[in-house]
Amino acid sequence: MMRVCSSTGLPRDSGPGTRDSQQRKFFCKCRVPSPSPESLLSLSLILAFVSSFSFPYIASAQDLTTPACVRETYGSLASAQRKFRSVVLGQKEASDLPVGSIRYDSAGTAWTKMAANQWDSNDAQEPAMADAEMDGEAEFPAVKGVLETRKTLTSDLLPPLLQAFRAFTYDTRARCLVALASQRRDAPATITVQPIGGIEFTYPRMDGCRIEQPAVSAGGEKNAAHFGEVKTGFCDNVRTALVEHEAKALKFLVAYDASYRSLLQFTGSFQNFMTQLRGPLLFPLWEAYRAMQVFGDQQCFTAQCDE
């Protein structure tokens, strides 16, 4: 490597050993000569070789999602949310619900109670169902919620509430793992996954998230899945937002439940106090009132006798 020194700005008559000569050595800059055409050609070949392997991974890392995959993933997370709320708030029978209530069946279809003993769905091809049929086709059976427990304090309900919320977080993680595992070509009809720190969950395969799909669907619409890998990274973002939303809602419910139970406890205690101590508390007041009436008829008892 050739070393070229520049002494711009230094005196020309600086002799060796002087201060100017030392400054010249201190400010001496090394300059690398320009690369040769052969080295540039070698560098371009190396970059082309590396890019031939990196470009497929960059293309597959694009956030490519199909409408079917998004729909199935959102539906699975919504089912986990409804399951969690049924554990916390409870699930009543169809006959006990008022008109206008919404219930979901095992396939995730929404049903609305239009009248007494009549449930209709948005799909016009689906016939109406009665209350008994709705209970049989319900997504989750009727169950008593944790917050519906009576004659107990809210502090005693915190362990089952926290356990239900912990199970909800693991359930959402498992559903995202199922969406990710559904991309495999050899994915089975049912997929079993186990989140870190949780138990095993088994859910059906999400066919909309599979990689190998025909270029054109049965309806004639183009399918984007054959252009690259279907990424399900959006599932983690949606899951995180959903868990945070349910955590805030659960915090509000616990605060409201604690206030309501404290008010009921105070009301019951005050009612018992008034019932048991009504005689000892009011009898002396009543006797004093009667005594005031008796002595009020006498002169100079309630007024001065200066007249």
Could you explain the architecture of this structure?
The protein is mostly helical and 307 residues long. Among the domains are: 1-33, no CATH class; 91-142, no CATH class; 265-295. The protein is built from 7 helices and 5 strands. The model is unreliable at 1-15, 22-32, 49-64 and 222-229 (pLDDT under 50).
Structure annotation, total helices:
7
Overall pLDDT: 76
What fraction strand? 5-15%
What is the total tally of β strands?
A: 5
What can be said about the biggest beta sheet?
A: 3 strands, antiparallel
The level of helicity is 40-55%
State Rg.
40 Å
Q: What is the general shape?
A: elongated
Unreliably modeled segments: 1-15, 22-32, 49-64, 222-229
